[in-house]
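Chapter review: from sequence to fold.
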Amino acid sequence: MLRFLSEIATDYGDASRFRVRHADYWFFTHPDAIRDVLVTHDERFIKGPALRRAKATLGEGLLTSEGDLHRRQRRLVQPVLHPNRVASYADAMTAYAAQTADAWRDGQEIDLHAQMMHLTLRIVAKTLFDADLAAQVDGIGHAMDVSVGMFARAMSPWGPLLNVLPLPSNFRFRREWGRLMTLIDRFIQDRRANDTGRDDLLSRLLRATDSEAGGAGGAMTDRQLRDEAITLFTAGHETTANALTFTLYLLSQHREVAQTLREELKQILGGRLPTAADVERLPYTRMVLSESMRLYPPAWALGRESTEAVTIAGHEVAAGSVVLLSQWVTHRDPRWWPEPQRFDPLRFSPENRAARPRWAYFPFGGGSRQCIGESFAWMEAIVVLATLAQRWEMEYLAEQGVPGLRPLITLRPSGPVRMRLRSLTVA
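The token string follows.
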């Protein structure tokens, strides 16, 4: 898909139209068209068919729901993920990152992606459910991998048929999905029975529904809570783990950038662990992550379906058409990003950002469906990167070749990312 979309943009420019079976598809790459789809004419679009099929795994959470349900759920969830509240989770994020750093050994070889997936899974479990899943992380991580892997089927028009066939993949998915649902249902029931002022996201969701909706009669049902929880659980660790993996890989390939990053961390932190207050004091760290997400955007494409005829970038898009936007393609457009393959965090200095169109960069989407967890993701990525990069340098084991890519619901490496660790604290 990445090559397909890139070739379409190269061959046909900012706007192209093609058919898949009986559906019209439009692919727009210019920032003005992206703004029109995500913001200007947002009310004329619903989620694309791939995410609608993803309800088989994500239910009716914020990522997949529509209309009044989506608006109501977003109103209830948004205060829970307000930046001021997210700041209270920084200590947990830092503590788990420090545990990971403490467990590593000089000269050790690791699968970086597996390590980041485990780390962010533990962080989201702690912040969402106030649970430490250290003993269960391998099993739950495997269940999450199976669930996310099924999204490849959601992108296929044959997906609904394949989902009902007696295939080994379906039996495997149902088994692992059942494990996740049992875990989340247990957390919900335990919290309903004994919510003693905890400050995790699930407790806040329970309290927010009661206060916002005017009592228990308007609160989320257990099914709604489960759907929102699995959405936050999936998105909250998958995207950040991938972003951290690609960032640390890029740093291993660009020593001068890694050195500049370490100098900022030394100047601001002086060897101590980062806190929420440090996030705004680490601008270069944020620029490194921003540039990594330009080259390897965790959300690599967005799909919308028009509910009525609409004009986008001078093109008449008929009702029922599927519109595609791709961070992977627009983030590598040389008009906005000179030498687009080059890793250069200074692209995100204030003066360079001001010189670019706003919608040349949209890693968290935009409009009414902009990622509700953006503040959480930035907080987590910055404090984890700061914690690890102070203490460890990584050597990419070159015999693997350049990491392959697997575009599912997020963009992830297609296999292990092997690194050799070098301690920066060993004399």
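Two observations follow directly from the output. The CA atoms of residues 160 and 172 lie 17 Å apart. The chain has 19 helices and twelve strands.
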